[in-house]
Amino acid sequence: MTEKNENKNSSPLLQEQAMKDVIKKNEQNEASETSQTRASDSTTSVATRRKLINAGAAGAAAALFGLVASACGSDDDPGSPATGGKGGSGGSSGKAGSGGKAGSSATGGSAGTAGEGGASAGSAGEAAGAGGAPDVADADIVPLNALLSAEYNAITAYSAGAGLIGGATTTDPLFALRAVITDIAVSIQSQHRLHAAALVDAIEELNGTPVKEADVAAKFKAPAALIANPSISNVLKFAAGAERGAGVAYNQVLAGMEDAQLRFLASSIEGDETQHFIVLAALVLGLASPGANLSEATAVKVFPEAFVSTVGTHAGLDAMPADYFA
Amino acid sequence: MIVRAAAAATALSLAVSINVASRKAEAKVNPAPDPVKDNTVLNALLTAEYDAIATYTAGAGVIAADVGTAQATRDIVTSVAVHFQDQHKQHAAALKKLILDNGGTPVADAMTAKIPTSFPSAATTTDVMKLAADKEKHAAIAYVQVMKSISTAAAAKLVASIGGVETQHFVVLYLLVEGLISANDGTKMNPTLVVPAAFVLDVGGSGTTNLETFPALDTLLTLDPP
Predict the structure, then answer these.
(1) Which of A240, B20, B59, B145 has CA 20 to 30 A from A171's CA?
(2) Chain B residues 82-111 with a CB less than 8 Å from chain A
(3) A103 vs A86: CA distance, rounded Å
(4) What's the whole-model pTM score?
């Protein structure tokens, strides 16, 4: 941890209160939006609203980044905020709620998840602001870059997860399913790549500078709890927790976005993340079993499209699958 | 120590983000917040929720009469369907509340399911699941597409919070129909965990559940020790 950052964060309680204040302002602004914007929408109030909402969105996005990366933290490394302070033990595999809501990051086992993410989102902000954006940058660039960072982390995490599954021992209870589980993971990873591509396009259209995949991947570390017990079940739990957190964070971030088209994009991705979450969770928690038609050949059908609604050239569920009853 | 590091790191990131946003962001709220206009969209979504509720009711009747399907299968499908229907009721309640908060008037519940003409007269349990999958898919798409016209943060948050659950309903039903997953004893014992939360975020309302805060899910997804 650098001296500079130690000073900045010398009082966690104060920092937490500061985050709560920002979120509270954001919520107050949502409330005032309902009561104050019906009749008029003055420039001043819009500017104030924009600043507050963006601040909240950025915080949520930061937490999302933390969530995915976090679970990749290690509790045996003190880390630092500047370079990616480490998360906890990965206890809750990325608890969605506290991950997304930065102000509640000090709750339970998931608190650690915000650690690495915080610093990472900081770099996302730098990329949007100082890393080549125009003098007057669009307010949506920062949250978009935080989401992009999270997607890159997910891509890296799935590669790592696939490696762990490939190395599973014959005594692993899910060993017989390792091939099809890997294929599903690869399919999910390919969808995260499509999400990332769409986010890059959106950032560049705003004249922003997208964060680089290599920079994000370089900071990735598998969570200590997963390394300690790299069972297929743990890989699935980790992935399910991260997808849950991603869905939550996309929801939080999009509410603070300024442009409806970008809300549309984020929402179209969010609905894919929640699909990933529920299928992974159902399988690892024993709420459903692999079906008779599930095979390495059909694994790609589990998540039909990477987007809920078609975004540009990226197909959504409106393209496939077809209705059963027209 | 862990809590401290987490809070500190997140605070730093937040500070950086706020600084960037405040220093360089330009005003661009598009469309301008207009809760009254949002009500038209919200009422269309409410109509769809009422249709979903009625469809599940009609579907339960079909399943009950489907003696050609094993009773155990029908029981599991019914229990999951009832759970999904309950979540749609929560969606409807939340939409109604926001419409009222916006000064609007919620549409009335037609209490009638819109059944496509191609739906067989002698429908099976699988047909009901297919119909539900279709409806959930269309709902999920609609919740995303209306985001292009939703103007307020509050409406965007609610709409996305519901849409992200419709996608879960869809994918579960779709995978069951396609035989890519199958129900088991876990489904039978815990049908309400199949899609555990009615909303992605906490949108208020008594007795509602959300993915954001769900302690039981935290416990279930805790990594196993060596």
Answers:
(1) A240
(2) 101-103
(3) 18
(4) 0.78
